[in-house]
Amino acid sequence: MKLLIVNPNISESVTALIGAEARRAASPGVELTTLTAALGVAYIETRAEAAVGAFATLNLLAEHYEGHDAAVIAAFGDPGLAAAREMLPIPVVGLTEAALMSAAMLGGRFSIIAISRRIRAWYQETVDMHGLCGRLASIRCLDEVLANIASVQTDKSEQLLALCETAVREDGADVLIIAGAPLAGLARSIADSVPVPLVDGVSSAVRHAESLVALGPRSATAGSYAPPPEKDWTGLPSALGCLIGRK
Asked: Are 167 and 197 contacting, i.e. CB atoms less than 8 angstroms apart?
């Protein structure tokens, strides 16, 4: 099995964190390809940044999906996920959706631990899109400028652990989602310090992707996720244009 993992942010250091956690989570024999967006921002916090990240992600998926059994969009908020599923003939999994589905199977209400306050609106909208707002206990987030996105786990370790404890004690969370690619692997390292299950988006996405490949679903030829219709196009990277325009 071969999985393609795309980081919609431009941070190679974050891609390294994603790759390390993905390798820890993947089953023996599963091959991983990790790629970093060629354009965009260091980490996505806003709707506008997510739109740019989605475009960068779709470009990489179009160029590299062949030879892979499934793909993972490795940014919380899943930029471009629905479009990628519509476009590609292989399963596509996003960090948020995978983490939400895992959390829903581990407890009643969940909280999300995030890296910035600005990111809350986008995360809230993503949870709402999946119809799980009724199970969202809270979104707890750091409220400080991040000097180095790749080292936020170590730089803000005490604050992140305090957010976890507050979400359990004050918000009534049964499960905590440690959100965002820059926090990949943190759930594994602090699991013994938090009294409820922790969910990591990268490991959840990798495992869900493996499951979908094993289930062997057919590609849609009807419905809203059928391939886009043929039409003229111009100005797009050729691989993306050929998938969207089907010409």
From this structure: no
CA distance 3 to 5: 6
Q: Which DSSP helix (H) or strand (E) runs through 177?
A: strand 175-178
Whether 8 and 90 map to the same domain: the answer is yes
Q: Give the N- to C-terminal CA distance of the chain in Å, as an integer.
A: 29
Which tens digits make up the pLDDT trace of 75-101? 989 999 999 999 999 999 999 999 999
- Specify whether the CB–CB gap between 53 and 9 falls below 8 A: yes
Q: Give the structural domain span for 230.
A: 2-95+204-245
Query: Considering the entire predicted model, what is its pTM?
Result: 0.92
- pLDDT (tens digit, 9 = 90+) per residue, 141-200? 998 777 778 788 888 889 999 999 999 999 999 999 998 888 988 999 999 999 999 999
Pair 174, 210 in one domain: no
Long-range contacts of 158-162 (CB under 8 A, 24+ apart): 160/113, 160/186, 160/190, 161/190, 161/193, 161/194
Instruction: Report which of 75, 42, 28, 35 is spatially closest to residue 59, judged by C-alpha positions.
Output: 35
